[in-house]
Amino acid sequence: MLQQARDFREESDALFNLLNTIEERDWERSTQFKEWTLNDVVAHLHFGDYAANLSLQDNDAFISFRRTVTAANKQGTRHLAFTHAWLDGAKNRT
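and the corresponding structure tokens:
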């Protein structure tokens, strides 16, 4: 396995372990990053990981996905709003 893949796995595990300690009420508190909530930040990270994985697995599906994102953006949908819609309401571990 590539060292980058091992590093990513270790970082993902460390993030999971940290997030697993967060109290339910804290998931919706604003952070210093753009006033996003912790749910927003995790959704954004998941979106990026999904897109990166899709680009490795299926180039045509990745291009289609990017076109969908770009079209939504051109219609005025902000990236974070698109991300939450794409997640279909999924949030933290609940």
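(Above: one complete record from the training split.) Helices lie at 3-19, 38-57, 59-74, 79-86.
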